[in-house]
Amino acid sequence: MNICFIAITPYPGYTFPELRNAAAELSKLGYAVIVIATHQANETLQEVSENITIVRLPVRNRWQIETFFWRAARRAKKMNSDIVHVFWRFGAGIVPCVVGRQKCLLDIRTGSIAERTWRRQFENALLQLDSAFFHFRSTLDESLAKHLRIHVDGYIPEGIPQSMLTNIDRDQRQEIRKKLGWHGNEIVGIYIGTAYLRHLDQLFEGWGATRSKNPSIRLVIIGDAIRQKQLSHFVRAANSSLTFHPSMPPEQLWPILMAADFGVAYVPNTPGFSHQQSTKILEYVAAGLPVLATSTPANMRFIEDGKNGWLIDDTPKGVAVGLEKMLHWLPTFRKESLGNQSLAREYAWPRIVQQRILPIYRSIT
């Protein structure tokens, strides 16, 4: 089976883990895998890496961005792909018109997260329009499919790499914390993700209010899209307790997660985020971390108050109250009780490929 992925994203990159992990797992199983992605400076236009053929298309101007799917579809057709797995962005509907509807799967990872109702409805309508050209479709879960009012043939959830289902001992953990510059008595929370439309100023304000009474807490931010002019404001709001790191590959991220004390899954509790499954929650749980998460319907499927974390309101006061609960509760929390638990294993990428992706592919072929 010859499988071609198409996505407007750098590859391999770290901002689109579902593409990277799905392609890697399918390649390990012996399938011929092609990835058509965007070209970045200093990258080759075509190469074979870890048995995956990577084709990179330039997107240096608006015209090249708007014609990406058309150009990618032509390459996929020339490569005679059996299955063309397309990650949705506006304009994806052209792919089945070029390649053929019976070969194409539209993978919808998110609906619109726009804050204005009219814009959110408009962007979701464009998604529905694109999906109409595909014979096969998938979403993260049933909730997202119902929200978008799209018939799907299966669900492909977010997942975690198999490599994250490992543990480190106490001495290793202390050594990592020392290398990172975390003091022995510091309580470290981790936030993984972007700042785009996340209203992180609310998180940082609540964090700063709590830190004025608990100076030993530190928040580590791992991700991109935080503009330089925002940093000073964020640091002031959080009472100078922030550390920033750019996005990083799983092998670098995992030790940091294992050395932390809890994870933070903060998004505003708005309609746009209500149906967005959080990858970061799965990574926190796999690392054995309790999670401080806003009480969106998606987060509530994974987090239970007082058992594996705390659900909070998306306001500074809500953050402060939840953080106080977390700090009070942490000494009695047994980290070992969550590490590698069944929830994390259920969402490991080898399992997702075998039980979710391949059955959809077989229905296509």
Major pleated sheet: 8 strands, mixed
Low-confidence stretches: none
Taken in chain order, the helices and strands follow as EHEEEHHEHEHEHEHEHEHEHEHEHEHHH
Termini separation (Å)?
9 Å
- Count the beta strands: 14
Helix count equals 15
Main sheet: strand order: 3-4-2-1-5-6-7-8
Strand content: 15-25%
Q: Which structural class best describes the helix and strand composition?
A: alpha/beta
Average pLDDT level: 87
The level of helicity is 40-55%
Radius of gyration: 21 Å
Per the principal axes of the C-alpha atoms, what is the gross shape? Answer: globular
Give an account of the 3D structure:
This protein has 365 residues and is α/β, with parallel strands linked by helices. The strands form two sheets. An eight-stranded mixed beta sheet has the order 3-4-2-1-5-6-7-8, with helices on both faces. The chain has a six-stranded parallel beta sheet with strand order 11-10-9-12-13-14, sandwiched between helices. Strand 5, helix 4 and strand 6 form a beta-alpha-beta unit. Helix 1 crosses helix 15 and helix 7 crosses helix 10. The mean pLDDT is 87.
